[in-house]
Amino acid sequence: MYEIIKILNFILLNGIFIFAIAIFASYIIMSVLSGLELIRYKKKNSFVDYSAIISSPLAPSLTILAPSYNEGNTIIENIRSLLSLHYGDFEVVIINDGSKDDTMEKIIRHYHLVKVDYFVNYTIPTKPVRSVYKSTNKAYNRLTVIDKENGGKADSLNAGINISNKNYVVCIDVDCILEEDALLKLVKPFLEKHKERVIATGGVIRAVNSCEVKDGKIVKVNLPSNLIARFQALEYNRTFLMGRVAWSRINGLLLISGACGVFDREIVIKAGGYDSKTVGEDMELIVRMRRYMYENDLKCRVVYIPDPLCWTEVPETLKILSRQRNRWTRGTIETLLKHKSLFFNPKYGNLGMLGIPYWFFFEWMAPYVEAIGIVYVILVIAIGTPNWPFFIILMGFTYFFAIVFSAWSIFFEEFSFPRYRRNRDIVKLILISLIEPIVYHPFNVWFALKGNYHYFTGVRSWGKMERKGFANKTKSAK
Amino acid sequence: MRIFAFFTSFVFLVFLQTNSISGQETNDSTYHIVKKSENAYRISSSRKIPIDSLKLWNNLDQNYTITEGQILFVSRPETEVFLNESGLNFLEADSIKTNFYSPTGSEPEESTLNLKSREKIYGFYTKSTFIFKIFLFVNLFFLISSIALMLLILYTRINKRIIKNKVDKCLDRYRDFITGWAYNENSEIEKETIFSEIRNKIKREVFTTELLSLHSNLSGESADKLVDLFLRAGLKKYSIKKIHSHKWNIKAKGFRELVQMKIYDENSHIAEYLNSKNDELRIEAQLAWIELNPDNPNSFLDNTRITLTDWWQLNALISLKKIGNIPDFGKWIESTNDSVAIFAIKMIGIFKQFESIELLIRQLNSPNSKIRYETICTLGKLAQPAPIPELQLLFYKEGTENKTQIIKSLIMISDSENAAFFREILLNENDVSLRILSAKGLVSLGDSGLETINTLDLDADDLLKRIIIHAKDSRI
Lengths: 478, 476
What we know:
Chain A is α/β, with parallel strands linked by helices. Chain A has helices at 2-45, 51-55, 75-83, 103-111, 152-163, 182-192, 227-249, 265-271, 281-295, 318-338, 349-364, 366-383, 388-416, 423-439, 441-456, 463-471, and strands at 62-68, 90-97, 113-116, 129-135, 143-148, 168-172, 177-178, 197-207, 212-214, 217-220, 260-264, 300-312. In chain A, the strands form 2 sheets. Chain A has a 10-stranded mixed sheet with strand order 3-4-5-2-1-6-11-8-12-7, sandwiched between helices. Chain A has a two-stranded antiparallel sheet with strand order 9-10. Chain B has 23 helices and 2 strands. Chain B has helices at residues 5-21, 40-46, 51-58, 79-85, 89-97, 108-182, 188-197, 201-216, 220-232, 236-243, 248-260, 267-271, 279-292, 310-323, 338-350, 357-363, 369-382, 388-395, 400-413, 419-428, 432-444, 447-458, 462-472; strands spanning 31-33, 71-73. Classes of the chains: A alpha/beta, B mainly alpha.
C-alpha cells in the first residue's frame, strides 16, 4: 500500500502541482481581466444612448426564436412579453416542438392564428414542420408560430433559423424574462467591430426565483429564498461576471448560454446550425462557428455583455439540479470529444490553445481531480500519517481563496449593475458564500461525476430524458 | 466555472508534504527518532537493516553512538529521487545553498554522501516550514482581504444609498425649476438658491442631467430657454472642463453636452480627437463635429483613413437628421476608404438623392462585394427603373447574398420589365430561397405577374407548385 502511495505521490507531485498552480493562476488572471472589462464597459455606457438603435433604418433586423415544449401554462404571457421588447425591426418565431399539452391550441386561440401556405426550405435539416401560423390580428404582425414534430431544443431552433430571413437570430428559452433593452445591448457589439466579425453575443443571466414579476417584467429583484437557488444565484454571479466576461475580453469565449444569445444567422447556417444530437447544443454551436471562421481564415469574435439581460428560473430541488448539471457535463464532454482535433492546435488560435484546453482540464477533468483527491485523503488517513497542521493550513488557503473570489464577484456586481435593493440580500449573499464550498460544492462534483458515468456507460439516447428536463424548466445557463 | 476545482488539488499537496516529512513521527519507515533507552543495535534489528547501513546512512561514529531524539535514516533516503524528478526543483536548489556542517569529520567520500543526504533532509525540512510559513501568511492575507472586501461591498452600498437619497431629494425640485424656467415661472429667490446649490458637484450633475434630458424632449422657444438657463447657471464652464479631462469617458460626456447646448467655442479642441486612437472617443468627437459644424458637417470624411463602424454610421445618421443640412453624398461615393463609400451609398438611399444614380450604377462594378451589396440595396430604395438591366446582368455574377438582395431590390423597383427575369429564375435557379423570392417578385407585379405565375402553375412539378402557393399567400 505504501508503494502505491509513493507512486501516486510521484505522479501527483508533478501533475497536480502544475494543475493547482495553473487553475489558481487562471482564476486570478480572470478576475483581473473581468475587472478591467467591467470598468471599460461601465465607462462606455456612461454616455451611450441605446435608443438610437430602435428607430434607425441602419439597425440590423432580428428574429427571436423561442422553442416551446409543454409550456401551456405560461406560453401566452411569455409571447406577450417577447412582443413588447424594445426594438425596431424584429419578428418573434415561436416553435412548438410537438408539445403534448394544449400549448398550440392556446396560442392559436389567444393570438388568432391561422395556417398559412408556408413553403419551408430545410436549409438545415430538421424534423418535419407540420404547419406555420400567422395571426389575423395586425397587432400581432411580428408573430410567427411553427408547429413541428418533436425533435428537441436544437432541432426546434434549427427550424426557426430556416424560417427566419433577418440578419441575426436571438435564441432564447421561452420562459426567460428579457430586460426591455436587452436586444439593443446585445446588438450593439455587432455594429461596433469592423476588424473582426462578431458572430455571437450573450449577456449575464440571473436567477428570477423569488423576484416579483408583473406582466412579463421584473418589478422587484430579490435574492432567491430557496437555499439551492440562492447558491446558484451566487454561482451564476461568479461564473458570468468573473468567467465569461474575462473570456470575452481575450476572445476565447466558448459558450453563450442557450437561455439568451444572439447569433449571426449567415454564419450559423454556414457552420451547419445546431447539432440536435448533443445535449450541449449551445456550447457546441459556438465552437463550430468559431471553427468555421478559423478554417476559412476569417477573424471572428464572440462578445459577452456584463449587463444582466436575461432572468431565468433556476432549479430549486436537488433532483432537478442534478439532472441539469448532469446534462451540462455530458454536453461538455460531447463537445470536447467532437472537436478534439482542436485540442492544443495552434491553427485555431485562442480557441485551440486556450479555450478548449481550459474546458478540458478545468471543467471536464476538475471533478475527477477532486474525486481522486478525496479518495486519496481517505487512503492516507487510513495508512499514513497526515501532517495535520499542513493539511489545515492548505485547506484554509483554498477555502479563503474561494471566499475572496466570491466576495470579488459580489463586489463586481455591486460596482457594476447592482440589482438587489435590500441590504440584507447582500448580507445573505455574503453569508452564503461562506458555506458554499462546504455545503453546495460537493453536490456539484457529484452531479458532474454522475454525468461522466452516464456518458461513458452509454446512456446517450437521452433525447427523451432531455425533453423531460426541458419540460421541467431546467435551464441551459451554464 | 468550477471555482473549487483547485480545492482538492491543494489537498494533494498537503499529503505530498506529509509523506515526505513525516520523519517526525516515530512509526514511519523512512526515519526513526531515537527514544530513551534505545541503541543502534536494537534499532537495526527491529527495523531489519544491517547496522553498517545504519552507520553509513546516518554518519555514525565507530561506537554507533546515538542520542535520544536524534533522527535516523532507516532506509536509503529516497526523498532525493523525489525531489529531483519532481517539479519542485527549487527545493533542491535551496538545500544546496544551505551550508550544512558535518560534525564528524570522517573520510571524504563517505562524508560527501552523508552530507548530501543530510542536506536533503535538512533542506527539505526547513523548506517545508518555509512553505508552511508562506501559506500561513497567504491565509491571513486572504482572510483579511475577504473581510475587507465584504466591508467594502457594504460601504459602497451604503454610500450609494446616501447619494441616491440626496439626489432624490433635489431631483424633483430641479425638475420643477427647469420646466418652470422654460415657461418663465420661477421666482428670483428660487433661482438664487438653486444656482448656489449646484456648486456642489453631485447636485450639479443631477441638475445638468435633468436639464439635458428635458431639453431633448423640447423644441423651439422653450428649448432655447433651457440653453439660456444652462449658460446662466454657469454650467458651460464645467462642460468645457469635462472635455479637457484626462478621462476619455468624461470627455465624451462633455462633447455630448456641448453638442446639445450648441456651444461652438471648443470646436478646435474637438478637432484634435477626430482621429483619436480610442474608438469610442473618436466616434464621439466625430459625431460632435457633425452637429457643431452644420455648414460643412462631414468635412473629415474627405481624408479619414479610419473605418467607419456601423455604430458610427447609425449615430451619424441621427446627427445629420438633427442638423437638417444634408450634403450631397455623391462626392464620397468613390472614396478610397471603403467604409466612407458604403456610408455615402447608404445615405443616398436614405435621403433619396436621385441625382447620384449614375454614380451608383458605376459602383455595381466595384471589386468590393460589400460595396456592391450596399449599392444594390440603395438602388432598390431609390426605386428607379434605370438600373434594372445592370442589376439583372449582375445577378449571374454574384454570390448568394448579393443575388438575394438583387431580387429584393428589383421587387422594390417594381417594374413589369422584371417579369421575364423573375420567371427565368423561378424556373431555372437551383437555390430554393431565390426561387421563392422571385415567385414573390412575380406576385408583387400585380395582374401581369399573377398571370405569368398562373400559367406556370398549370404544368408545374410539386416543388414549384408549393413555391407558388407560398408566394401567393399574402399573410406571410
